[in-house]
Amino acid sequence: MYKLVIKGGKTLNGTVKIAGSKNAALPILFASILADGPLKVNNIPHLSDVSTTLRLLMDMGAEFILESDNSLHIDASKLTKLTGEYSLVKTMRASILALGPMLAKYKKAKISLPGGCAIGTRPVNLHLKALEELSAKIEVKGGYIYATTDQLIGTDIHFEQVSVTATENILMAATLAQGQSTIHNAAQEPEIVDLANCLISMGAKITGAGTAIISIQGVSNLSGISHSVCPDRIEAGTYLVAAAITGGKITLKNARPQSMQAVIDKLIETGADISYGKNSITLDMKGERPKAVNIKTSAYPNFPTDMQAQFCALNCIADGQSAITETIFENRFMHIPELSRMGAQLTLEGNTVICKGVKSLTGANLMATDLRASASLVLAGLAATGTTTIERVYHLDRGYETIEEKLKLLGAQIERIQD
Ligand code: EPZ
Fold first, then answer.
1. How many Å lie between the centroid of ligand 1 and the Cα of residue 228?
2. Backbone angles phi, psi at 263, to 5 degrees
3. Burial profile 394-408: b = 16 or more Cβ within 10 angstroms, e = fewer
4. Hey, which of 216, 236, 265, 317 would disulfide with 174, CB 3.0 to 4.6 Å?
5. Measured between alpha carbons, how far is 184 from 186 in angstroms, rounded to an integer?
6. Selected residue with higher pLDDT from 67 and 27
7. What interhelical angle do 190-201 and 164-174 show, nearest 10?
């Protein structure tokens, strides 16, 4: 196991290249199951969740070649095994995204129930109910989902709750269903638009992706094509907060500001100066202490839950009191006890944390618990006086590509060492 050791207090300045989006790359890799031939996916991020997805697809018979230019050739058109094993699924919940494509293409799937994780129970009831409405027969026993269908039949799907991966599962399944499907109360994240664009290039007939109503006209087959994954808006937001929390100036290359408006608006509210170039964003904090900002997470295009922990770290050293309310997940405050050990003044009241900003935090030995909570601990360590160590860094590696290398390039004093 590895840990990160950060010597805090350095102002971050410079330029960093944003990688492809984890939450777009994962569904797009599962979409390769739908194709009649190999898919070429460009701008693939080097993340452990991508490696887990490739291991799961390889275990089912897919073949792939990862090129040095971050492009991946994947052929999942002739799967020899239609089971997603627990040993692989338990490490990455997004494996549930194999279900829709396997049902659509092979009419059969056996996928381990993903189970919960640190941030919540993470049920999949919305996925299963919608697939049954598309004429799948679903049985859950022994920790596995058994799904079969003679043929998926298009229909109207009404999600009682917005769900990103449930929208993606049904979107993929409906591309090969018979007839028309319409998804109501669909998630609107940019990653869904990226997935839809990839499916459309493969020959799918989809309109409305990125809105609450997505229409899909089923087709008989989809072809392998080439697609480039959109930039990771959460990685981008995390680095902007790194500049804001250390009073620095950072330019992000390969970023897409139009998919980050809610986060950018909040950063401007902290007093950051934001400017834009072609596919780039620059944040300049001019050495100023950020002002405290109130946050309430909700579905896109509103403030993303995946940026909540990072803004909690920022508010810890901001000028003033703030309230952060988490409305998406029931347990996404695992960073609070760790930040409190650094001297943060945080009080949890239900699904809201009240923060009284302090002038500075003190480095401490910390434990990472989940992907975005770990990112908030890194951010706090960058700003703190003294040394911070963060154990169980594997949580970070799920969603951040070589985070210590990118932070070093920006002037951080950070090392990854063996435990
Ligand atoms: C996706 O998770 C993202 N993961 C998450 O990113 C992100 O935080 C989340 O969407 C935001 O909504 C990927 O895209 C791989 P949901 P997902 O279904 O799809 C409840 C990260 O840090 N729900 O949109 O699993 C659920 O419990 C990760 O990159 C059901 O009740 O989230 C939650 O309260 C973390 N039943 C709410 O809906 C279901 O069948 C929204 O969850 C499905 C979801």
1. 23
2. -70, -45
3. ebbbbbbbebbebbe
4. 216
5. 5
6. 27
7. 10
Q: Which residue's CA is the nearest one to ligand 1's atom 14? A: 23
Residue with CA at minimum distance from ligand 1 atom 44:
163
pLDDT over threshold 70, residue 407: yes
Active site residues: 117
Phi first, then psi, for residue 345 (nearest 5°) are -100, 90
Cα–Cα distances in Å, from 114 out to 1, 100, 125, 144, 405? 24, 15, 12, 9, 32
Which pair of tokens denotes residue 117?
A: 């994780």
Is 30 close to ligand 1, i.e. is its CB under 6 Å away?
Answer: no
* Residue whose C-alpha is closest to residue 333's, from 387, 295, 362: 295
Neighbour tally for 349: CB within 10 Å: 9
For the stretch 175-212, pLDDT in tens is 999 999 999 999 999 999 999 999 999 999 999 999 99
Q: Is the per-residue pLDDT at 291 higher than 80?
A: yes
Paired strand residues for 295? 324
Give the confidence band of 121 by pLDDT, cuts at 50, 70, 90.
confident
Query: 391 vs 125, 229, 319, 356, CA distance in Å?
Result: 34, 30, 29, 26
With a 6 Å cutoff on the Cβ, whether 113 touches ligand 1 is: no
